[in-house]
Amino acid sequence: MADITDIKTILYTEKSLGLQESGVMVVQTSTRMTKNRLKQIFKEYFGFTPLKINSLKQEGKTKRFRGKEGQRADFKKFYVKIPEGANIDSLAV
């Protein structure tokens, strides 16, 4: 069962804001999220089916802090193509 809390953040970077103008939203989720689950979330909570979903798995970087090594968390990024006329007021900038 897909839940809206599986979406961590909506990315608002220079690149993602440019993509939003052409109807593509960039969503960051946990590594266990699949395209079908994300499609279900958009259908249940926002009332439309995305036209296309592309995914990207991002490995966490290894960083040093005060001489000790650590690693950032892994995550998945999804590029979701939204149909014309669909509106997501709670997610838009």
Compact summary:
The chain is an alpha+beta fold.
Described by strand count, sense and barrel closure, the largest sheet is:
4 strands, antiparallel
Proportion of beta-strand residues: 25-35%
Task: Kindly state the number of beta strands.
Answer: 6
Overall, the morphology is globular
Number of helices: 2
In angstroms, what is the radius of gyration? 15 Å
CATH domain class = Alpha Beta
Helix percent reads: 10-25%
What does this structure look like?
The strands form 2 sheets. The chain has a 4-stranded antiparallel beta sheet, sandwiched between helices. The protein has one domain: Alpha-Beta Plaits. It is built from 2 helices and 6 strands. A hairpin with a 2-residue loop joins β4 and β5 (68-71). The radius of gyration is 15 Å and the shape is globular. By secondary structure, it is α+β, with helices and mostly antiparallel strands. The chain has helices at 14-21, 35-46, and strands at residues 7-10, 24-29, 52-58, 62-65, 68-71, 75-81.
